[in-house]
Backbone:
């Protein structure tokens, strides 16, 4: 199996499918995980070039995933784009302090904007 260049950690199956279709149409391989624990395991196994991370998920939140990534030398340099419904300033600030590169509020963001942002972190695109 080809290694995915992007890992989406998202618990909403509809949104996950929409991202899969959109990224694949752009020629970008997308792997998925449905919670933070699965996401961390997938990161360690696949070493993606970019993580798309939801914050509100079962088992481990996106905040916990970011904290664990920061403590893991093999993961801390992978760029993370946060995709969430949380729009409070303190949520934005804390994710950026934990190493996230960008922060998108799902209800205010088009899929094309996420793709454009993702391409900045993918060397071949």
Residues:
């Amino acid at each position: 199996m080809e290694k995915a260049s992007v890992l989406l950690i998202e618990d909403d199956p509809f949104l996950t499918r929409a991202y899969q279709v959109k990224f694949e149409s752009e020629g970008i391989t997308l792997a998925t995980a449905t919670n933070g624990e699965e996401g961390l395991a997938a990161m360690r196994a696949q070493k993606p070039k970019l993580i798309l991370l939801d914050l509100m998920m079962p088992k481990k939140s996106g905040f916990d995933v970011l904290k664990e990534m920061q403590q893991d030398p093999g993961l801390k340099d992978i760029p993370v784009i946060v995709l969430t419904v949380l729009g409070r300033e303190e949520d934005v600030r804390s994710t950026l302090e934990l190493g996230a590169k960008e922060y998108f509020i799902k209800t205010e963001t088009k899929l094309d904007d996420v793709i454009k942002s993702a391409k900045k972190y993918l060397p071949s695109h």
